[in-house]
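User: Batch of two.

Assistant: Item 1 of 2:
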Amino acid sequence: PAGGCAPAVASRAPEPVWQPVIKAAKRKERTELDLEGWQKYGFATTRAHEFESLANRGDEPPDALPRLQSRELTVDTFWERFEKPGFPCVIAGIPEDEGWPAWGKWTVDRLLQRFAAVPFKVGKSDDGSPIRLRCDHFEQYMRSQADDSPLYMFDNKFGSGDVREQLLHEYRVPRFFPDDYMALSGEDGRPPYRWIAVGPKRSGTVMHQDPLNTSAWNTLLSGRKRWVLLRPDTPKHIAKAKHVMKAGDDDEAVNVFLDLLPRLREQGVKMAEFVQYPGETIFLPGGWWHCVINIDDTVAVTQNYAGRHNFPFIWRSARTERPCWSQRWMKAMDVKIPALAEQARRMNEEDKFDMDVLLRKNAERRVLRRKRREGRALRKAKRRARSSFNEEAWRQKRLDEASSASDSNSTVSTSSSSQASSSDQESSDETSSGEEAAPAGAGTAAAAGGGSAPGARE
């Protein structure tokens, strides 16, 4: 107006720093979803009452799993009743009885605030590279998220570097699990085996069996989890509930518990559902199907292991699924526990298993995998370009990047981040790791059954 000021234009409040970071992580983690798709089932809104009902239920059946007290259980009794026959159980009181500094200290708020600027892994992108988020950004996300199946901080590097060393010294491998035969080969190239997990409610892991037939222990330090177990001999199509899925269904943990398990029960499928409370440790033998959902915000630590009672099952899996690493493992057994190496060779002879033949086939598979990976990357690059796309220039750029990476990897690096990246890549080349109980201390004494050392996983 004449003689006056122009009307003020309402300005939009700037987006908090953490929000675009979270959005980018979501787009990488689940490329098949747009951002709205993360909330399409309404498990935090229109169907929140169903989730709350699940969170308030007890064990089904009431005696779903044996529950024992750590201080009343001897190692020998545990081995005879559970580890040798391969039967799962819940052991209460380990962190308190064994004096873990993490007990009472590792709450969600305290842990995320303590390592606010440290990035932890929350997933991996289509090309297998890890997706990491700073703890302060993840904390803001946890406080405000309404996703059906939220991002889940699940890191086998424990943040890496000095942070990893701090965390590993704040808990120890429970006395019931003294063996760690995989540690014989050293940490370099070893399949992922221990994790720290910080999970928002409704996050979880899909129905799966842990890799390489390893057994696992999972200790919960804060919040509650709900588990469902199916026996190892359950057919895969039954365990995965593919035959009862309807159009539009998903197989995320929250979908499994609220939609798929009721349909499996209607068909008479036997299962055990139970709640894990703070201070409880789940023992999960190799081969058991399991799906886990966080019914509160949780903090847990977990580890998969090979020991005196499950070694035959693990060797037979590892020699096929991780042939290159298994060859190194065998050489380490020869040096450190010759009797174990002899047992592995005897099994190979009994099974008429030729490791050299498999190594050649594995090399061929790796070439095919690289080609498939490059094909996916090429299609993705073309979609992003939308118009003109110079495939020759794109391929040359990939060759230059590969050459640069090769030069970098040929030198000794003291960078924990580069070591983490290398290990993550190797694990994606041979096999992927499962989650909860899907997969302590990695020391020679522990490996030989002579004691435990710091470390573990979910």
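Item 2 of 2:
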Amino acid sequence: EKFLYGGHKKITRMRRVKDFGGFTMQQHLFRVDIPRGSSAPHECIFKRKGDHNENTQPDTVNFKISCKPHVVVDWRGDDLVCRSPIY
């Protein structure tokens, strides 16, 4: 439904953050915006938002969002096709 109408998805992930005493674990909320009519899988990249490392920049987080199978319809290219015949 998000691929057809667009919208956003919130994903919570624990990440390692560098502070003055060393490293701590911190919960971070990522908001992935899915544009209307986008194709699956949708890829969203967050540069330098991942785990922090010693003497380097933080990691890059890459999310790939895909569709769940639906009971009534299938994707064929950019079209939705009904599985059962319509009378």
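The mean pLDDT is 87.
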